[in-house]
Amino acid sequence: MNTADTVIYLASCAVNDTAPDPAIIPDDISGVISLASRHMISALVSMSLENAGVSNEIVKSKIASSVRMTMYYDSLSVKILRCFEDSGVWYMPLKGAVLKDCYPRLGMREMTDRDILIDASKAADVRSIMEGLGFVCESFALGRHDIYSRDSLFTFELHRGLLHEERFSAYYSGVKGRLIKDSGNNYGYHFRPEDFYVYMTAHGYRHYSRGGTGLRSLTDEYVFIKKFWADMDIDYVMREVNALGISDFEKDIRTLAMNLFGGVKESYNRDMLCYIVGSGAFGNVQNRVANNTAKYGGGITGKIKYILARIFIPQEAMRDIYPSLGKYKVLYPFLALHRMIKALVNIRGKVFESESELLKRI
Amino acid sequence: MRLKDNFLTYSKDNDTYILPPVDSGFTGMIRGNETLGGIIALLSHDTSEEEITRAMLEEYDAPYETVKADVKRAVKILRGIGAVDE
After folding, report:
1. Confidence band, pLDDT 50/70/90 cuts, at residue A141
2. Which of A39, A97, A236, A350 has the fewest C-beta atoms lying within 10 Å of its C-beta?
3. pLDDT recorded at residue A346
């Protein structure tokens, strides 16, 4: 078994809560842990290793770190949501905050932050709440989500809306109408499983089609399907993913996840698996350059259009970086130039450097 | 004695975890099994080592001395990280 196969095997054992065959585990697990870490499934893989009798300091620390973060995040989330309740702010935890509970054990689902959809009209109240709880506001009204951090460890992204990209924006513009009121509180909402799955797929597609997405997206897919699929209205799901233009992606990622983790033996998209294994949890620049060049038609025209799109980013995104653009739209070309020069001379220049190298190779 | 309110606990199946508040001096985590989970559940209200031992004996088929020693060891660890209000 190569390293990727071993990671997938151990992940499969973890999400199915079964003990791995110790004979399959290599003597030196550093490569396995390293690849699993790139995909943000090192705690999950470590739990599997521990289950097979491997219990060294790296394995212990990967598990402890993820369990600790999950418990602290859960505790902070409870405090935040209690304050939202007291202040009459409607809210809905998103993504990992929900998916973590689909995994068999605490800490299996690693996260770098927590996402919550909030009542956009109460964003200023939310800021006061968060600052009152000791959070520092890192970003406010500069994009689709406000960012708060605490103790240099915890980050909460409070979303004013979902998936603002052109492809999905109309579908998610009135998202509150799709939400179900929680029982047991006054202002909490949740998606029904079908809508959560559609959102998870659209969000996954967004990352996949840009810089790529890692194995964690496949374990997420599998644990969610395992928990909810049998009782879901599949016709509704298929209609919705079709309306969003992501039905092929949905079928491919579901089939792949079920093959890897669910014991299903159907033909699956091997290119997708290679792409995911090569991407890591947060994608990479190589994928982003290749995907965007292709999006703009490929060839020299695609490259030129991609370069121009990288320099002249959408007004909304530029406003995230230069808030003054909100008042003085005429500044746009100058700010685009400023951004490009700044990128070329500071650390982000390295990204541009690698992007230009990659463009030469495509 | 009882477990301090600001300590975080989690117990499900055979996984039990106890965490100090994020701003405390102790940066580790206590990890244990179902038995520790039972002990911390009993420590959620004022109790004593003897009361915990007797409650555990109702749950587990084990000799008194064994359970008493387990409880003593668990409470000592919890005291060691400042998790117990006496």
Report:
1. confident
2. A350
3. 59
Domain range for A209 is 192-283
> Which two structure tokens, joined as six digits, stand for A322?
């230069």
Query: What's the gap in Å between the CA of A147 and the closest CA on chain B?
Result: 20
* Nearest-neighbour CA in chain A from B27: distance (Å): 10
Distance, CA of A50 to CA of A33 (rounded, Å): 12
Q: Chain A closest CA to B21's CA: distance in Å? A: 8
Residues of A in contact with B31 (CB under 8 A): 64, 67
The SS3 assignment for B33 reads coil
Per CB-CB distance under 8 Å, the chain B contacts of A75 are: 8
CB atoms B15 and A106 under 8 Å = yes
Q: A65 to each of A20, A30, A248, A289, B28, how far by Cα in Å?
A: 22, 17, 36, 33, 9
A80 belongs to a structural domain: yes
Please state, in angstroms and as integers, the Cα–Cα distance from residue A342 to each residue in A323, A350, A353, A357, following that order: 17, 12, 13, 19
For residue A61, tell me if it sits in a domain: no
A107 and A87 housed in the same domain: yes
A180 and A209 co-located in one domain: no
Written as six digits, the tokens of A283 are 């994608």
Q: How far apart are CA A232 and CA A99, in angstroms?
A: 16
**Is A181 domain-assigned?**
yes
The interface predicted TM-score (ipTM) is 0.85
> Is residue A352 one of the residues assigned to a domain?
yes
Q: Give the nearest partner residue to B29 out of A68, A75, A151, using CB atoms.
A: A68
Q: Domain map of chain B by residue range?
A: 2-85
Beta strands A180-181 and A145-150: pairing type?
A: unpaired
Of A171, A191, A211, the residue that ends a domain is: A191
pLDDT band for A210, please (50, 70, 90 cuts). confident
Does residue B83 belong to the interface with chain A, where contact is any CB pair within 8 Å? no
Domain co-membership, A123 together with A206: no
pLDDT tens digit sequence for B7-53: 999 999 889 999 998 877 677 899 999 999 999 999 999 999 999 99
pLDDT digits (tens, 9 = 90+) for A91-139: 999 999 999 999 999 999 999 999 999 999 999 999 999 999 999 999 8
Question: Which residues on B lie below 8 Å from A151 (Cβ)?
Answer: 22-23
Please indicate, yes or no, whether residues A175 and A131 belong to a single structural domain of this protein.
yes
- List Cβ neighbours of A78 (8 Å cut-off, separation of 6 or more): none
